[in-house]
Queue: 3 jobs
Job 1
Amino acid sequence: MRLKYEAQLEGLNQELVNMGSMIEKSIEYAVDALVNQDAELAAKTMKNDSRINREQKKIESTCFHLLLQQQPVAGDLRFISAAHKMVTDMERIGDQAADICEITLTIAKQPYMIDLKFLKKMAAETIQMLIKSIESYILQDRKKAEEVIGNDDVVDELFEREKSELIHQIQINPKCSEQAADMLMVAKYFERIGDHAVNIAEWVLFALDDHKTE
Amino acid sequence: MEQKTKISVKDLNLFYGENHALKNVSMDMKENAITAFIGPSGCGKSTFLKTLNRMNDLVDNVKITGQVLLDQEDIYGAEVDTTTLRKKVGMVFQQPNPFPMSIYDNIAYGPRVHGIKDRHKLDEIVEESLRGAAIFDEVKDRLKKSALSLSGGQQQRICIARALAVHPDVLLMDEPTSALDPISTLKIEDLMEELKKTYTVVIVTHNMQQAVRVSDDTAFFLLGEMIEYGNTKDLFAYPQDKRTEDYITGRFG
Amino acid sequence: MKDSICVKRKRVSDYVMYGLIYACAASSVLLLVGIILYVLVKGAGQINISFLTNVTSVLRGTVGIAGNIVNTLYIIIITMLIATPIGIGAAVYLNEYAKPGKLVSLIEFATETLAGIPSIIFGLFGMMFFAQTLGLGYSLLTGSFTLTLMVLPLITRNTQEALKTVPDSYRSGAVGLGAGKWYTIRTILLPSAMPGIITGVILAIGKIVGESAALLFTAGSAYTLPKGISDIFTKTLSSGGTLTIQLYLSAQKGEFGIAFGIAVVLLVIVLLINAATKLLTKKFDVNREK
């Protein structure tokens, strides 16, 4: 029964999965561009953000129309509400990736004076969180979502250490202060990406929570 | 705020001859609240509603076991007078069924059955009941006209007023808006909100959106059994039984 | 090329059918009108005040049907007074109280059968039972009792049909308010069934007016008027011929003037009965929206 409705729900699911892989790629390219000082890749990734924004609008419209047309209840309602919120966080992640690329365009012109050790760690960590949160959605895996939420502390800690490191670098070598300032912003963006991944995981938990007393 | 229980049903079983139509139904319905029964066609919700004012007595070959306690008194007890019972528990039906007489006589019918003859008293009751059903202003100038001259939505409100005229405690409504247009439906839903302040309302509906909009508690019936019963918002957002979830999400009729 | 909707198709068979049906309708109407006109033409001349208010008497030299008119009224009133309550009561029992089953089917079968028995058999029975066994002889009472038997199934059946058309929702509604069975019947069901009941009553009256065979053996043919107030009741024990009986007797004797005069009177009565039916059913129809 309700074949059209089932198809619409499946379609929404697919759109979310696609969006997930789009933003995963965006971040991976952004990190590659940053580490390898690849301005061309950074520019391409920035341009791609408009696709991500369009995808968000499309998914929001799908959710809106499902609510209007099908009057969902129970699990369906929770899923659609969660999807509606999740795409916002996903789109923000796309924006952060674009912002990182923007910075890459400026600092890629000169060789790096600062060690990217912590930044690389942050990048790896947040990419993992994002992948896991999207997996938790696809697999409807509560545990995975909870793990992502736990990981937020790790990223926050890495950000603090990166910040201290950069401050230290500025103090010993004032010439790299401009680069350092930009790096700090990149670190902040990674921290924000981590926050958004946590939000996604939280919405997954909301969708899966059926208030059943086991 | 603790709400009192108005009707308490314990292990109710109903048989139409060999057919076991209601199986071990137990539930407590709160006073001054709206309780809704939902479920697919033939699940027993209307049958169950009718056990609450013993309308099933009219059907041949019906056997009922268990208890239905109205204010802690079993309505199936040996000493029960059905006339008094039906004064306390009124009923509104799916198809508006005003009697073929004037609006005034329709409303006054119930009180007259119970012995009220005084003209002034009847006038009072008629006005009070028509106001209670939010239709007094519309018909006050044509009380002597036949009730059959009104529209469907108006007729249904007349039937509600008629039920209110005997001052019941409980109002049973069997799919009260399924034969009406959307505007009349919404008017009657607003009316139910008002009514629950004074009466205990129990409605059977096959319109789930109506159950969500209107009721405080909802019971889901399937094949004669009551599968789940609870706070309406909880039941519709977080159904505990898979059969409930399948029904309310439309995964089966 | 698709068929254009603007081109009218002429079907010959449609026209032929239309013509045939029209002819049927026309002939039935013409037949009816023809009979009425024939009777009116032949009998209208006979009608005057004297005819209607006098009793045929050789002594006084008058010719009139007043006596017959009075007798007809007697028969109608007595029969209906007995048949109506019994008929309605039986219908109410059958429809509202009796459980569907063998007994009810039996009673309904009996009613149907009675309705189909030729009236002359009722006349025979009336003559044997009421006139001889009960000792009433040729009298208006005998005639009335006999006609009651004839007319009872009609009233019962019409009332039953009328009650069947009363929606069950009225019954449910009344019970839901606490009303008892008889109260519901009295206040809702019977008023609602009134048009059907009235139809039955008037059909019965029509049957009585036109009845001849059954009355021939039971009520006789006398046509004197009651002699005084006290005689009004005792007259029922004596014989009396109705208009229809008198028509038969007059025609037999060759007095065609009187016969056609009575025929005109009977036609007028039938007309009035039909008009009354329409009026009364409209007036008593509670189911109409006012």
Job 2
Amino acid sequence: MSEQAPAPAPAPVPQDDRSSGDSRPPFSRVVLDAVLEGNSVVVTILAIFTAIVLGGLLIAFTNTTVLHAWGNLFSNPGNAIAQAWDAASGAYVAIFEGAIFNPHTVSALFQQKSMSVALHDGALSAVFNPLSETCVQATPLILAGLSVAVAFRAGLFNIGAESQFIGGAILATWLGYGVSLPPVIHVIVCVLGAFVGGAVLGWIVGVLKARTGAHEVIVTIMLNYIMAYLLAYLLSKPSLLEELGANGNLISPNIASNAHLPLLAGTHLRINAGFLLALACAAGVWWLMSRSTLGFEFRTVGANPNAARSAGMSVPRTWIMVMLIAGGLAGLSASTVIQGTDFSLNFQSYGTYGIDAITVALLGRARPGGVVLAALLYGALHAGAPLMQASTGVPVDIVQVIQALIVMFVAAPPLVRAIYRLRAVRAGGTGQVLSKGWRT
Amino acid sequence: MENLTTLAVPGRLQLGVGRRWIAPAAFVVLGLVDILVFGRYAHHGDATFAFSQPFAKVTVPNLKLPAATTCYVLGAASIALGALRVVDVGKVVRRVSIGLVLAFFVIALLCWAYAGSLNTFNVINQFQGTLSDSIPLILGALAGCLCERSGVINIAIEGQLLLGAFAGAIFASAFGVLWLGLIAGSLAGGLVGLLLGVFAITYLVDQIILGVVLNVFVSGLTGYLYDKLLVPYANTLNSPSTYLPIKIPLLGDIPIIGPVFFDSTLFLYITYILIAAVQVGLFSTAWGLRVRAVGEHPAAADTVGISVRLTRYRNVILAGLVAGIGGAFLTIGSVGSFGKDMSSGKGYIALAAMIFGRWTPLGGVGAALLFGFTFELQSILSTVNVPIPSYFLLMVPYVATIIAVAGLVGQVKPPAADGQPYITS
């Protein structure tokens, strides 16, 4: 019965709705069903919406003006609500202006004498600066998110994007200032070095899992700390990575300008070839996972290791390959940071990329396209947060709260359905990423 | 399933043959390091070890060891123990020998570091510091045991510690009452436990992912509230007093043992009680039997009338309450005021300690103490200008955990139903 339902509908259509002869339901019906049943796109959008609302409440009710207004709720309820709305919307508007588009930059542009002056002074660039920053922030998130996503598809949970990032960063930095090569070649060598540095860390995890059954979650968490301390050690030795005269500041020398990733839109904007690299990797991962034999093996092992084994695939070898590729992708994200924006390595260069990568991969449902969109969303939040803190006094940490809330809701579709009183899905699931506890 | 798992790991069988040689080889290597590195490069003179604190009622004389000679003797003893391991010895000897070799290694290290120096290595301070460094790790590991024995993976220990520390500082500071901070810290941990329970047990979210996300959430939330509330109102909201050490009469005056075990803050004594309660509770009571049944075979437990969901909920929240106390220790038990991300990975180390201890409370406590020991050793050695970088000492717990889960110190097996939601159709 349900086989007659066409592909675009996420769930089979009730029989009585079908007109005779044509099994394709009207488009409006498909949309309505999708919304009412909460398919994965709808659940994701609602999850983001819920998280933004909760974040807004948090912003509003930690604001002293708002709290004061709510103290006089019964004498002036309108003011209380207006104040709360102003506080929350003010913060989100500031994020928007910092991440997408700031109207002030346009008015500044029209005050310029001529277009050539605008170009020269960077007034035109200022209009596009928010978008450029969003892409810059999203670039490492795309790559690290892909790293986690590839592992997810193969049934592995890679919490170690941080250690792999550090591995890639160490090699990219060392190649960046330690060797001198002609312009284009130097960039390529450093990027490859970053890939190798990350891949080695991933490979260790894969081999330990394949050989001894050590759970990748534990190993990757431990490697994160080991690599962080190793990085601090390397940066504390002038003979290794420390810049001469850094005096214990734990910072490396700047990489050669030949190793910088080329800028894409003039010297005023930070957007660089790293963004293209990230998009290319997303396309590559898509091809790998959905079109190649290797990707088929990855997905089969992820879906059911026993079936994969029965079909003659080597599960341990697949694990090693998956972690190698995942590690390499996380290493590449380090390359985009070191060669694209920072140009030197310090002991906090790895930031929160490892954790952010997990949230990106989960929000993107471990699909390359989803990862790119999720990374752009989080990149926008990261790009807009500093302006928000500067103009409204809301601490940037709110971004982390919203990020975690989104993922919590995305991971619990039944909760989102319960909040919005959506029907349960009748057939299939929501394509949820699931791992199976400590045992494999 | 078991057979299939073994099939999946062909390397494991080969490793099993080699495993017999790993421990003896490691012993010999450590012994050689004792002799060739510490013994040869030690400065001339003695290394002094102190066994009592200034102004103690009963003083124990300092111990002066000739540094180089001690290193040579300890190294030789380690190698001998390695040789002994090759011959099949009893289980007791096997376990003791690992401890002995590690202890020899640490003593040789200290002899080398303190040889000919005017500084003395105060053994009492080292062990006191070990215990207080271990409190959050021990409570976190106990929380992990409580949670995972009932079949729910608890990666959120980090978040429970952090929120416990946050709530402990705020409540103790705002109301000026310390025990209120302790209770609030515990309840805050329980709140994270409740969240974990709701999402993992009711909404069937993958528990490893959930734990990581909860940690991010708590880190973001406390960071946000810290900047928004604790910084501008630091005087009222973030300046709690701290628990002072309470010396237990009589017991506290015993030389060596007294100052280490019986002269500490309330938190250490609570930790003693909780260790005993969790160990006895899980392994000697009907409640514990039910919890473990739920964690190993929920369907069977359900059949005999144990409510799987209720048991799991209770344990997850209980675990949160225990970890929350460990969190409160971080603020009102030691430094006082709260700082951003001040749990700094202790929750993950507690998780590692629990796994290292093979999902048993006492094993977890042992591992937590071992980790606490290395942290304290690192902080003491960093004050005496030892030429080994402290970063490597800081890595020790993490490397040890990888070695443990890689099975080099024996199989590590979680409860059978750990991490699997129980769904009745």
Job 3
Amino acid sequence: MKRHYDPFLIVSIISCVSVSLFILAPIIQLLLGPSWVIILESMRDPDIQKAIGLSLYTSGIAALIALIIGTPFAYLLARKSFFGKRVIEGIIDLPIVIPHPVIGIAILGIVGKQHWLGALLHRMGVYLMGTISGIVIVLTFVGMPFYINTVKNGFEAIPVRLENVSRSLGASFRSTFFRITLPLAFRSIIVGFIMCFARAISEFGAVVVVAYHPMTAPVLIYERFTSYGLKYSQPIAVLLILISLLLFIALRLISRKDINL
Amino acid sequence: MTYIPHYATYDIKNELKMIRRFKKMKQLQSVILLAMIVLSGIDITHSMAGPSGKLVIFHAGSLSVPFAAMEKHFESKYPKLDILREAGGSTKMARMISEIGKTADIMASADYNVIDKSLIPSHASWNIRFASNQLVLCYTKKSQYASEINNTNWYNILTKKGVIWGHSDPNLDPCGYRSLMVLQLAEKYYKVPGLYDRLIANRPKRNIRPKSVELISLLQTGNMDYAWEYLSVAIQHKLQFIKLDDHINLGNYQLDSYYSQAKVNVSGKKPGTTLQRVGKSCTYGITLIKDAPNKKAAVTFLDYLLNPDGGLAILKNMGQPPFIPCRVPTNAMKEKLPEMLKHRVVVTD
């Protein structure tokens, strides 16, 4: 019997292979570039350890902030329709479309002394230029839309019916949210967390405007590249990719486990 | 027999006619398209007379404003030419060419030494000095002590607690190590031992930026009170600034031996190694990249830039004193210049 191949299937397979290659080819080249000796040497470099640590720390805090502030907001967007909702959804997406250095400049604009908010902060002795808090603010700014959009979709996928049943059986709004909605949305919350974390870790353009020192890993990669060249910037990139990969696989595994319960 | 209304048959006939006409039109279109392709090919060979295509220029961040003006002027002269500029710390831009293999036609550096050290001999063969500059201390009306600061008390103000001042990264930007040299020379010139260390102690690392031009937005947004910049940059961005004595501003090449007292260590070829930069006047260098894709346009542009009535006049108007005429250090280097540019330079060290 002659096998029949759907031309669409063939096109899909071709596009799958070419997209994968398109993404993997430069990354494989990057991973194969530096020798293991240099990578091991870099792992012991205190500057690199500090930068990668700072990147993980600030991105993690940014993702946590997104989780705490963003979850109730995402729930609101998923469940209620109100006047101006489209506008608010548009505003949330703004950080994705604004060029990164512009985000940095915009943030510096309100934390400087020329702006009343910045003047107030300066008087209180809070400096955001070149500080860890400044980095966290930038990373939260760029990561927030990814968290909210993902979690909003997660909440939308949960049938309202279940919440109504819970409430009709006497559960309060709050306990319905924590005992019914939240556990069901757990996976999408983890995915949103990962997305926000990943987006934050990769941010360079906005961070370098607000804080050059202390250096996050992408800024250190840039600094090493410009002052020493490719050879000494590649190993940091490789380390950063490997660490992020491990972290994200771990988080995905956690979320997978829970969905099977 | 089914009844076909009159208007329906008419419609179908008309449609068939339209389809046939459309097919003919398509044939005609492809003929026209083919003709256009052939003609445009002829057109390209015709326009070889003047420079055309793309001209890629890498230049120091501090040259952005005058080079933008030159680009506009030059492109209006040669409308078929598209100048693409990329600005950055000079050392970084040179690395883009030598290590990443990015293609460029022209490279202009804020320190002519960068071209000598990282581009010659493999990526360039000559280096013309075309302009000078000097360092100034920039501020805005809102900076702390803005009403008090002058060119005799500036270093006292920079050591005051709470005053936020910065410079660019000495490892990435010549303006960065030059700022440090100014501070060292100030210690010698004002005869205040330990001044340099006290100044640096009041400048936390977070006040350092990759490029000096980036400090301007920090000044303007009130995140920083004072920043070290080139005079040209201060004028182009309409900043307030303190002009310093020639002995410390690195602007007068006749004082090069005095400037050489200042020594700053910057990062070397490997992390952990350093390289010593010795004080010298700010002298800008420009070169043609050896494998420039558009050599013809590049040489024409250089001829325009080195012309006292062309690019050099623009530099002068923007606070960046040009060398008239421009300079090369040796006769041997002058010999290596493209014929068209030889009359634009003199040999002097």
